Amino acid sequence: MGIAQLNRDHGIAGQVEFFEGQGGFPFIRVKNAKASALISVYAGQVLSFQPAGKTDDLMFLSQKAYYQAGKAIKGGVPICWPWFGPDPEGKGRAAHGFVRNRMWDVIETSVTANGDNQVVLGLADTPETQAIWPHAFILRLEIIIGETLNLALVTRNTGDQAISITQAFHTYFSVGDIHQVRVSGLEGRQYLDKADGGQQKMQSGAVTISSEVDRIYLDVLDDIIVHDPAMKRRIHIASQGSQTAVVWNPWARISAEMADLQDDDYLRMLCVETTNAATDIITIQPGSEFRLIANYRIEHM
């Protein structure tokens, strides 16, 4: 569907506009009295969220990100689905599933009763997806842009057998100085340290970043806070449907090795991901659905 048709069908005057973005992908620009956002229809990915009157974006988006069919966009909120991490069956399929590198459908746009904007994107199984993952599904991403950014990833099993998934909002937050950042809400939680051979460890105190960090936290609470004194803000992450969380920063060596990151990007970004990962596996019965929800709120210091 072309940009003109998308605007006719789903544009909202002065609030929701479709345009041709980088790589020729259809982008959605949302702006209301509370916030603005940028969404890529390719990958079903929020790229930017900025409260009204503020100059700092919630999201980190790499200046070297790929905008090419079949590639993931580095930054914003990539969607990992129907698996998180390596192929769980060892078949050589791409890490993090297959929805972060294909075009989604625009299902609906609307203005809510309190003046927020909602954008709903979706995917359903096709012969191509069946060849990768042989299950029938409908996937919806419900995005609400207001004083907070609210994301709901809804998986409906339209097949006749139970399906099992892992998944994530692989959220890249923009931070002022990684050396000053700390993450609270994970104190006393066990985690799998993927930067140290997957060993299980316990978090003592707030999470700080001074080297590569790649951890899956287990049995997490609902609220996690990223404290960012350099930007004079706190990012509150509230989740539903998730018992695990991932904290990731590639640090200097890996950042330099990644073609879609600048060498020093690790200083300006931190991923704190709302996940169903590791043992947090979700089973969905035929005709049923599961909702993974993350809400992001900025509090200024």
UniProtKB/TrEMBL annotation:
<dbReference type="InterPro" id="IPR011013">
    <property type="entry name" value="Gal_mutarotase_sf_dom"/>
</dbReference>
<feature type="active site">
    <location>
        <position position="273"/>
    </location>
</feature>
<dbReference type="InterPro" id="IPR008183">
    <property type="entry name" value="Aldose_1/G6P_1-epimerase"/>
</dbReference>
<dbReference type="GO" id="GO:0047938">
    <property type="term" value="F:glucose-6-phosphate 1-epimerase activity"/>
</dbReference>
<protein>
    <recommendedName>
        <fullName>Putative glucose-6-phosphate 1-epimerase</fullName>
        <ecNumber>5.1.3.15</ecNumber>
    </recommendedName>
</protein>
<dbReference type="InterPro" id="IPR014718">
    <property type="entry name" value="GH-type_carb-bd"/>
</dbReference>
<dbReference type="Pfam" id="PF01263">
    <property type="entry name" value="Aldose_epim"/>
</dbReference>
<dbReference type="GO" id="GO:0030246">
    <property type="term" value="F:carbohydrate binding"/>
</dbReference>
<keyword id="KW-0413">Isomerase</keyword>
<dbReference type="GO" id="GO:0005975">
    <property type="term" value="P:carbohydrate metabolic process"/>
</dbReference>
<comment type="similarity">
    <text>Belongs to the glucose-6-phosphate 1-epimerase family.</text>
</comment>
<feature type="active site">
    <location>
        <position position="170"/>
    </location>
</feature>
<dbReference type="InterPro" id="IPR025532">
    <property type="entry name" value="G6P_1-epimerase"/>
</dbReference>
